[in-house]
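Could you join me in thinking about how sequence relates to backbone shape in a protein? Would you write everything just below, so we can both look at the same thing?
***
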Amino acid sequence: MRTRRLRSALTLFSTLTAAATLPVGAAGPVTAAERPAAVHQRAAAHDVAPGLSSVTELLVQRLLLADKVAAAKYGTDTPIDDPEREARILDDVRARAAGLGLDPDAVAAVFRDQIEANKLVQRGLYARWDAHPAERPTERPDLAKEVRPALDRITTQLLAALDGTERARALPSCGPRLAVAAGWSAYTHRLDALHLKGLGRALPSVCAVS
């Protein structure tokens, strides 16, 4: 049952993002200074799954950091896959989830999907830069001082968002509502095809429907 709902939700997400027809109103796309509060408010104004949009907004923000991770690693000996760091992240979110009264394994599954989505985007960017050298990054972000602290902040925010949406994520309607919220977040951030694919990879474990 859950697998069938998930497929339906991801199909809806693909349809929404491919069509790119979600209403944004006269104000246009949300700027970086407005996020995440304005996204939630504007999604609520359009009845676009306001609770779940707080989650999808953070998923998109985390996904967009994959560009900086890729730029930091590209052309170096640092691999995209980092099993030791990934394991530390998952152990950390399990412990913090337990402290919030959430299912540690369910929360770890959400974050595992975020890690895989991030790596999917990194690999896509590597392929793009290999094929089009003119598009390669001209600056190398500092992973330790710039990128990872930003990822850590999003981790804290996402744990809070998962806690705040626990009931909504357990409802049978979570899948379709998550797809709409993801479509909204994708449209406001103007995600390209690669990042849309990454966002699709980030969604499967969000809904805790048994």
